[in-house]
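Handout, section B. The chain below has 337 residues.
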Amino acid sequence: HSNTFDLHIPIMKIKGLVTEHLLDNGWFNMDSLILHEPIIKYGIKKQSDRTKPSNPPNIKINNLSVFDGNIGLHKSDLNFGDSIFLNKLNLSVEEFIYDSLIRVEFSHHLFKSLDISGRQFEYTLPDSLYKVRLSEYSYNHVNKTIDLSNLKLIPIYNRGEFQSKIDYQQDWFDGSIQHINISGFEIDSLISNELLQMESLSVTDFTLDTHRDKRIPRKEGEYKALPQTLMSKAPIRMIIDTINVYNAFVSHSEFSETGTLPGTLFFQQIDARITNFTNDSLRLLTDQHMIFDAAGVLLETGDFNLSVDFDLTSKDDQYSLRGSVGDMDLTELNDFL
């Protein structure tokens, strides 16, 4: 089975195409390229069947614009796991250039400016258990900002169906974030050093519902890693100076090993702040502590405050914790026992 590629462009406008460059050395050199409502569908084979793609031709476009594009990169696996769909994509690129002889190390090797926006982004996770859906998104290269609206983690199966899809205990999630703002996003660090770097990430109106059934057996030898281990094993290096969370709600329901009804625990009106979120070895030479501070309400009555200091260089995941909870009714926790 081979990859499939479908392309439909209702309106395409090209201005200033230099035909001599195209005929003499294969360069696509033009003043402007405008695509209206292009539809691109790319079906991907399984990883083991893929061959290394050939290099695209050399391209130079002074102004590249895409309006209301629809792009789909999909796999034919069950539930289209690891598939991406972008709808209503708008793209504006100034002085775009691709030269196969130039090693791309910085954004200016590819473009002078870049603006991306769109609606209805959707990604099905590789395990085919969840979808990520995004209503609106935008990236401004000059301002180094990313804005995301109405982000949702959608379970493909409900809580009951989910339990029949897993062999061992695993948390079920259903979450949404009304707005995410990223500032100080350094795209050059990502391109040249494979380092995800930003000054701040702000999350507003975050809601998360989780569930676990402890009547299902645990995977033997499974270790639930703490943040330090999880961050050190992340596939990419990261530096995020500050993460702010505003007005979050987190709910967790759980069947105990012998329970017949699930217990529910929830936190609301959470405001939180994380500083020095990083797994970068050079950054850790100057600051090895990640601080997490949070405040909110537990089970509607118990005001709580929490502060955790994570030693990011600790080999055994050391951390120190301080916290307090106000008066509350502890009988709400009986179903967890």
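Note. The CA atoms of residues 58 and 207 lie 46 Å apart. Compare this with the example in section A.
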